[in-house]
Structure formats: structure tokens, C-alpha cells
Design brief:
Elements (H helix, E strand, L loop, with lengths): L1 E8 L3 H12 L4 E4 L15 E2 L6 H17 L7 E3 L2 E6 H12 L5 E5 L16 E6 L3 E3 L1 H12 L5 E4 L3 E4 L8 E5 L4 E9 L5 H6 L7 E14 L5 E4 L4 E5 L4 E6 L4 E2 L15 H11 L5 E15 L5 E6 L2 E5 L5 H17 L3
Parallel strand pairs: 1-2, 1-12, 2-9, 5-14, 12-20
Antiparallel strand pairs: 3-8, 4-8, 5-7, 6-7, 10-11, 11-12, 13-16, 13-17, 13-18, 14-15, 15-16, 19-20
This protein binds flavin-adenine dinucleotide (FAD).
């Protein structure tokens, strides 16, 4: 039976980043996923990594994730669409957020109604609304990003890949760690295990009678071709909308609260998507004076796991068994930093 220092279950953004740091620490690492790495949950992310978040902890994680991605992918500019990000909020909230962000990062500006600079003037801002602008965030092509992270570790002498489903995990044994059972009947042993199964974590650990405070939702966005111009990527907290520029005439956009609860991650495939793009188009046309037409390209849909209560859910579930979960719509924003934290804590023990 193969034995490892670290077994990473799940090869989305969290698992791939964890595997990257694990092999680079010199740990004998197993990466287990039935799919091609980076081709399931994370594959359909919009790719917004912004520091305009709700808590100091999340902002620090986002700063760390931006720095990690730059380190892992030396030619990150090739997969980066933009660095600027705006949030539209009511004036009072925007000012409070501005003061909060300024304590943590300084490249943030606030613009009020009637004072919009340059190309932001093409935004329909209403009385009592304001815009927060930050300049060093990351808008990325997630599919290419995942591919690059995977290519950076594929073939590494410390890595063994299993293109298989993990079925269950044993109790911890003092000498050997955990036994992981795979769906072809094979078993492997690992001293440390990282559960980076995204929305699948909850269902995997239930077999071991561990219940995670997680809700599973289908997150949906739409890819459009645009006639006209959108000046910058951003989110509109008034209309519960987010959008990301993909080059000059493409955007990906979605609504915050249109996520649909699902009973299992696979159920995303059964969601009725008919006309889902209509309200996104309406909100975007209302906000941007320069848009003349938005042509539907495709829906992007994937399972998201939202924590009930505090987020994200990162913890040592049992001895040497680590969980990265509850990333909601922020897996690229929080996942890389949490993956590094996990490997750092394993490093202090091995
Ligand atoms: C439409 C949409 C837009 C989004 N936009 C953004 C955004 O702009 N910014 C942002 O930060 N986040 C965004 N997200 C959220 C982000 O995509 C997720 O939070 C993130 O992908 C979660 O990554 P993960 O690595 O934790 O899990 P996943 O990427 O879901 O990876 C889990 C992996 O586990 C594998 N797996 C499942 N079961 C097993 C098993 N039994 N054994 C082994 N492997 C298994 C799966 O094949 C999969 O590869 C968006 C999501 C969607 C759907």
C-alpha cells in the first residue's frame, strides 16, 4: 500500500494550491480527484479576487491569495484581465467600508454622486450612492489559472495522482495516520489528510458521522459579449449584481442572491437556467450608460458551499485531518491562502 505524508482530496483551487505547497515542502503527496484537476467546481468560477470584503480576516486572506497566485504563476499577467475593482453602495455604507479598508490597505478611493472621475462617469450613479475603487485586486481567467497551477506540479517526483474518487477514510492510527479508500478498491495511507472537496466535503464526511454546518447552493453566472463599454469589474450592492470584464467586449456577470439551494452538488446539472440572464441584463443596462447590447454566450454554473454561521470553515476536524470549506462564492479569494495555512501547520509537525 502506498504511504504519503499528505493526501489532498479534491483538485479544485484549494486542493491544487495545497498540493503545490506540499510538494514544494518536499512532502510525499497524493492528489485524489476522479476528474481532470481543475475541471470541476472551480472551473466555472467568475474569477474575481477582490479585497473589498466584510471582515479583516477575509481581507487578509484575499491579500495573501493574490500574493500566492502571483508567486505560483510567475506569468500571472497572461491570465489576468484587470486589477481594478469597484463596489457601488449607499453613501453611508460606502464611507464606513472605506474607513475600514483604509486600516488594512491604502489603495482605495471613494467617489460620490456628481464627482465621478474619467471613465467611471459612464456609470449611472444615483443620489446617495458612492463607489469604492481598489487597484491591486485580481480579475483572472480561472480555467487557465487552474491549468497553470496544475501544470506546475504535474510530474513532480513528490506527487502521485489518483484519478479516482475517495470513498471513505479510516480512524486515525498513531503510526500510520489515515487509510483512504478509493473507488477502485485501492487503499492508500497518509499521515495528514486535507479535505478540499468543495461542496462535496459535507457529503464525504457524513459517512464518518461528522456533520458540517454547510448549505449547498447552485451558483450561477452568465457570460456575455458586449456592444459598448463597461469601465471596470465590480459589484453593485444595491442591485445585488457582480460582473467581471473579460477583455474589451466580454463580461461575466451574475446576481448575488439568485443562488438556488440543492440537495447534492451533482444537482447543479438539473437547474432550469431558462431566461436566468434576463434580470442580469436589465440590471447591467440600468447601471451602465454605454452598453448598447449584451449577447448571451453561456451559463456558468457550479456547486458552492456556504457555511451556516462564520465563514470560511477552515479547521482541523480530527488529528491531522484538515478541512477547507465554506468558501461560498469566494473560493479563489480565500482558498489559496487557506491551503497555504494548512500546509504551514503540517510543516511545523512533520
Ligand atoms: C458561477 C460561479 C461564480 C463564482 N465566482 C467566484 C468569484 O468571482 N471569485 C471567487 O473567489 N469565487 C467564485 N466562485 C466560487 C468558487 O468557484 C468556489 O468557492 C471554489 O471553486 C471552491 O473551490 P474548492 O477548491 O474549495 O472546491 P472545488 O473546486 O469544488 O473542488 C472540489 C473537487 O473535489 C472533487 N471531488 C468531489 N468528490 C470527490 C471525492 N469523493 N474524492 C475525490 N475528489 C472529489 C471534485 O471533482 C472537485 O474537483 C464562483 C462559483 C460559481 C459557481
Amino acid at each position: 500500500m502506498d504511504k504519503f505524508d499528505v493526501a489532498v482530496l479534491g483538485a479544485g483551487i484549494s486542493g491544487l494550491t495545497a498540493a503545490h505547497f506540499s510538494v514544494n515542502e518536499g512532502f510525499k503527496t497524493a492528489l485524489i480527484d476522479p476528474n481532470i484537476p481543475g475541471r470541476e467546481g472551480s472551473y466555472n468560477s467568475a474569477g474575481i479576487i477582490t479585497r473589498q470584503l466584510y471582515t479583516k480576516r477575509e481581507i487578509l486572506l484575499a491579500i495573501e491569495s493574490i500574493s500566492i497566485l502571483g508567486e505560483i504563476i510567475p506569468d500571472i499577467d497572461v491570465v489576468t484581465y484587470d486589477r481594478k475593482f469597484i463596489t457601488i453602495e449607499d453613501e453611508k455604507t460606502a464611507f464606513q467600508d472605506y474607513r475600514f479598508y483604509r486600516k488594512i490597505f491604502t489603495d482605495v478611493d471613494i467617489y460620490y454622486y456628481g464627482e465621478l472621475p474619467g471613465d467611471l462617469s459612464s456609470i449611472n450613479l444615483h443620489v446617495n450612492e458612492a463607489i469604492l475603487m481598489s487597484y491591486k485586486d485580481l480579475m483572472i481567467d480561472t480555467r487557465e489559472t487552474l491549468k497553470k497551477i496544475y501544470e506546475g506540479i504535474a510530474g513532480n517526483k513528490n506527487l502521485k495522482e489518483y484519478r479516482l474518487r475517495a470513498v471513505k477514510i479510516s480512524e486515525y492510527e498513531e503510526e500510520e495516520g489515515y487509510t483512504i479508500y478509493l473507488d477502485n478498491g485501492e487503499m492508500i495511507k497518509s499521515k495528514n489528510v486535507i479535505l478540499a472537496l468543495g461542496a462535496w466535503n459535507k457529503y464525504f464526511v457524513e459517512k464518518s458521522k461528522i456533520y458540517l454546518p454547510i448549505s449547498t447552493y447552485a451558483c450561477i453566472a452568465v457570460r456575455f459579449e458586449v456592444d459598448g463599454s463597461i469601465p471596470v469589474s465590480g459589484s453593485d450592492e444595491i442591485n445585488y449584481l457582480y460582473w467581471m470584464k473579460e477583455g474589451d467586449n466580454r463580461i461575466i456577470a451574475g446576481e448575488y442572491y439568485q443562488s438556488t439551494p440543492i440537495t447534492r452538488p451533482e444537482k447543479v446539472k438539473e437547474i432550469n437556467l431558462e431566461n436566468r440572464e434576463k434580470s442580469v441584463i436589465k440590471s447591467l443596462m440600468d447601471r451602465f450608460k454605454n452598453i448598447k447590447d449584451l449577447r448571451f454566450i453561456e451559463y456558468v454554473i457550479g456547486p458552492c458551499s456556504f457555511p451556516i454561521g462564520k465563514r470560511p470553515l477552515y479547521k482541523e476536524l480530527m488529528k491531522n485531518l484538515f478541512l477547507i470549506d465554506g468558501l461560498g462564492g469566494y473560493g479563489f479569494t480565500l482558498g489559496p491562502a487557506l491551503a497555504k495555512e494548512t500546509i504551514d501547520s503540517i510543516t511545523t509537525r512533520l
